[in-house]
Amino acid sequence: IHHHAIWTGEKARKANLSNMPHNCASCNSPETLEHVFLECPHAAQIWNLAKDEWSSRTRTNPPKINLFSHGLSPEIPQKLKPLWQRIHLTAIYTIWIGRCFNVYEGPPSS
Length: 110
Fold this sequence. Notes:
Largest sheet: none
Order of helices and strands: HHHH
Helix content: 40-55%
Radius of gyration: 15 Å
Number of strands: 0
């Protein structure tokens, strides 16, 4: 994520790859890095769970989500940074796995 090396629909479109979908498999919006990890309803649902986990464990408001900080936001007290890193990385991993499943296996039927 940090180096923008992840292949998204936007990157495939710019590379003229027609065999890769250009829109989000979950909501059909243009698939950008920001969309996949922040804007998509699937991602928002995961981040809400992550924020709830943070709040229940620390009894504080969750930090602002920043994909490029590696979970090391300066607003987080030093003793809580390992916890936020685990929550942050787990959320990113879960979002990416869900995205890949939807792209290659198809979204769940409603």
